[in-house]
Design a protein that fits this description.
By secondary structure, this protein is α+β, with helices and mostly antiparallel strands. The chain has helices spanning about 30, 55-60, 85-100, 115-135, and strands at about 1-5, 10, 15-20, 35-40, 70-75. The chain is about 40% helix and about 15% strand.
């Protein structure tokens, strides 16, 4: 059981781990050991008790290139030298992704300037106009 938040948790069947060989530098160890992890999370196929339909849709609507057309989130973890550490890293990144997608910003209510602010604005415009009017030619 993977606990995301107190309200959201995923069963072990919802997440699939595959060990692969890591890329990049590391000497012969990279060629011999499958220490990188592919985490595959099928958003639509996860159990209904895990995520609500709204949360699933928000995950699918996110503009993340790790989500395939079929709705599978693929996270590749290869930062660490051990498979266990990479697995924990992949789970942590999955948690952060789900938390970020399930966060809803409050709707913005447009604000209005107060009556006093409007009055000050008009008074300053009038004062500025008077100042500019005094700059004209002087008639004798």
């Amino acid at each position: 059981m993977i606990t995301i938040t107190p309200n959201i948790s995923l069963s072990d069947n919802d997440v699939e781990f595959t060990a692969i060989r890591a890329q990049g530098a590391g000497g012969q160890n990279v060629n011999k050991v499958s220490s990188a992890i592919h985490l595959r999370f099928d958003i639509m196929a996860c159990s209904p008790s895990s995520l609500s339909d709204v949360q699933k849709q928000r995950l699918l609507d996110s503009k993340d290139n790790r989500i395939t057309k079929e709705g599978v989130l693929i996270i590749k973890a290869q930062q660490y030298r051990t498979q266990e550490r990479n697995k924990l890293d992949a789970i942590e990144r999955l948690k952060q992704f789900i938390i970020a997608a399930s966060h809803v910003n409050p709707t913005r209510r447009p604000s209005k300037p107060s009556r006093n602010a409007k009055r000050k604005r008009v008074d300053s415009k009038v004062q500025r106009g008077k100042t500019k009017a005094l700059r004209g030619k002087v008639d004798y």
